[in-house]
Amino acid sequence: MLFMPTPHVIVIGGGGTGAALAYDLSLRGCRVTLFERGELTSGTTGRHHGQLHCGARYAVQDREIGRECMRESEILRRIAPASIEFNHGLFVAITEEDEQYCRTFFPACQACGIPARLLTAAQALAMEPYLNPRLRLAVQVPDGSMDAWRMALQFFASAKARGADIRNFSEVIGLKVAADGEAARSSRIIGVRIRDHRSGSEYELTADLVINATGAWSKSVVGLAGIDIAVSPSPGTMVAVKGRLTNMVISRLHPAADGDIIVPQRNLSIIGTTQRLTADPDRITVPHRDVEKMLRSAEIMVPGFKKAPFHAAWAAARPLVGEVSNSVGVRDLSRDFSLIDHGEAGGVGRFLSIIGGKATTLRGMAEITADRSCELLGIESACRTAELPLLPARSLYRGRAGVSAHPGVRAAKTGNLPAKAATESRSGERNI
Ligand SMILES: Cc1cc2nc3c(=O)[nH]c(=O)nc-3n(C[C@H](O)[C@H](O)[C@H](O)COP(=O)(O)OP(=O)(O)OC[C@H]3O[C@@H](n4cnc5c(N)ncnc54)[C@H](O)[C@@H]3O)c2cc1C
User: Which residues pair with 141 in a beta bridge?
Assistant: First the structure.
């Protein structure tokens, strides 16, 4: 029998996308090494708004994104319930214009397969008494709140249980490019150069395939191979006040704009977000005017929001695919993701980039990227991430012997566990 070595895939970027990708590839039989320059989730993933999108926000403008969010949010609710509070969402019409918009919005939700329910003002106010009493009507949809860190950590934990080697504080500072065969006009990536920020040392590692999942930092990472791509890092500001003013996610019933979503997270209420551009996602500020604008917008949906005790304001950068020009504004750039095969797009083979999308669609983005990876590596293996429940986030920080509850991991391993640890992982999640 012919011996086929296990293909080695390097994933660059330890956000939600990299985490889901490392997990999917590990399940399909690849040896995976993931590099993250800082702590895991220290990029955009650890700082987003925390909304599990059912797709209603995108239904009018982009049906495909609407359907995708609906599909993926259902899957995440099934495989990662410990990272989700499925509290539903209300789109609220405050003005006559909002009410008019409902005529486009409601059928668009239905066309995306989003179960939307029209509510009278009285019904909505009975559910959420702090809403603006001038409310005209509301639409209930299956949105939810997501724990941004825990969701990604569940994917990391499950990837690690499948043998993925996850190295944080390890920055990719170089891509090793080799001529591809005799026709030296094309080339391919054969490995990466790493700086270990803990020890200060540098080393190299070879791979059969390298995947860039660095989101807003993608331009500089692909630049290491002399490639240019159109990515616009677009920061947005969020403001959290203390107290849970609503139980559901509240969105304004109008075309997507700044400061029109309030997400309840535990005992906080978070209003977001703004949208602008930055050349450098490492230098994002939180302008005072953004904070003021967020509080003013929240006040329209939930009067009294501004007076609630201030908790925090922060910003994170969306990795939007495309570039702003005189005719294309930042709100015009798609919220969709893009998988780039640099072998086809720029002549540098064995190198993929997965950019954009949303935290809600991380699993689906990973599936499409892993499908392409398997094609390139000659692996025949179907995606299983939509079916298998994820491990608890906590198990990431245990030794491998501590990983016990994953359906694919042999039950015999639980035999070595102290009784308490085994009970914890069977009974699900606890705060970390
Ligand atoms: C303001 C705002 C609000 C949002 N709200 C929501 C929401 O409510 N719901 C939702 O579904 N989505 C939301 N999103 C979108 C979501 O946050 C992103 O789509 C998602 O987090 C991107 O994840 P990622 O893994 O692709 O990128 P990131 O999380 O940014 O991960 C990329 C990682 O790559 C690392 N990296 C960079 N360079 C290197 C290198 N050279 N070597 C090694 N590592 C490197 C970075 O440190 C970073 O950790 C929001 C986005 C923004 C900006």
Answer: 89
